[in-house]
Amino acid sequence: MSIEDIARREAIAEYEVVGRPPEPDLQGLVELAATLCGVPRAVINIIDDRSQHQVAAVGFEPDVCSREDSMCAVVFRHPGHTVVADARLDDRFRANPFVTGEVANVVFYASSPLVTPAGIPIGTLCVFDERTGELTDAESRGLALLAHQVVDVLELRRITRELGRSNESLAQFAGQVSHDLRTPLTALAGFLELAADSPELVDAPRAASALSRAEAATARMSALVEDLLDYARIGGRPSRRPVDLADVVADVVDDLDAQVAATGASLEVDPLPVVPGDPTLLRALLQNLLSNALKFGAAGGRSPRVEVRCDELDGGWRVRVEDDGPGVPEAERDRVFGLLERGAAQADPDAAGAADGLGIGLSTCRRIVEALGGRIGIDESPLGGASVWVLLPEGDRALVAA
Question: Where is the Histidine kinase domain (predicted)?
């Protein structure tokens, strides 16, 4: 699967339209498309990396088919209309099961792509008939306009859901910042305490080393405060310059030294790339992910195993933080990115492996990743716990389809 397919799948998930009853607004648009084009059948197709989902239809019952069988999957990533008078004579479609009679008997076919504001094609508005046909210029323009309106409806639904959470998000932002600062502050306090307990005349090298590490932690904390608060201001934007993730992770591990030592953690890190991004925001991101992995991996008094892995993809990188903790059930993997949300095991204080703090950290992580044009999600880890992955695009582009 390419990075574009992963980005498309995540964009589709944000609209929360797949697997649900047809929305009245979408149903109205598909009926209007059929009437405008003078055909008996029309459909809104949402196409992910595996399947075509018919989320609203007229003239037949909406269903799901494999992407390989989909006619629209052949053309939906290309800009502009596709109009085919007789699909039986078109090399792209003549062997398709929707044309041959195996699934349907489509002859006339026309579609207009559904493209998100971020430039990600997610499907089509499609009209078709069992006899040959054509579209006039006015009908073509109308179909394109209706396709734009389909995306507008999906965007309006998404924005409405987000606005419903915005007041709570703003009220909790100060808590997020203080949570993010807790780790470097803890590291700073530990190093200064070590220095205070090291008499200069007896152990001067040890005191000097501890004070040096405290100074470095203080500098990182100051940068974190300044950049996070700037990012929070209206109009604040993250910087975008080359960032060596290996250096970032090294700083994070240094700040987490006390947590690693206290848990007896085993930590393994892949070679990491230089990526375009904001160094402070990327550091806050990886600090959250590693701190959570150590925390939940250590649930029940075990010594956790944490791995930082990196896969190079077509168009960017996927960085994964793997742990051997309790994991996050699949049904809860999107919800835990909300403010103050936790997975079931973490929400129950009496549950085995319970721990606090997951919700605020992952909420911050999602904000940072989206500001950098990337994506974030959770899968099951080969280690048995959670695998939190981050897609980071190369160059100066966000995750858009080719």
Answer: 176-396
Measured between alpha carbons, how far is 265 from 268 in angstroms, rounded to an integer? 10
Which range in 45-54, 215-224, 344-353 is most confidently predicted, on average pLDDT? 45-54
Distance between CA atoms of 246 and 254, rounded to whole angstroms?
Answer: 12
Last residue within a domain, chosen from 118, 134, 160: 160
pLDDT (tens digit per residue) in 37-50: 999 999 999 999 89
Task: Clarify whether residues 142 and 16 are in a common domain.
Answer: yes
Domain that includes residue 249, residue range: 237-393
Name the pTM for this structure: 0.52
> Counting beta carbons within 10 angstroms of the beta carbon of residue 205, is it exposed (0 to 12), middle (13 to 18) or buried (19 or more)?
exposed
- Rounded to the nearest 10 degrees, the angle between the axes of helix 137-196 and helix 358-371 is 130
* C-alpha to C-alpha distance for 207 and 199, rounded to whole angstroms: 8
In a domain, 227, yes or no: no
Region class of 226: left (phi > 0), else alpha (psi between -120 and 50), else beta: alpha
pLDDT tens track for 107-140: 999 999 999 988 899 999 999 999 999 999 999 9
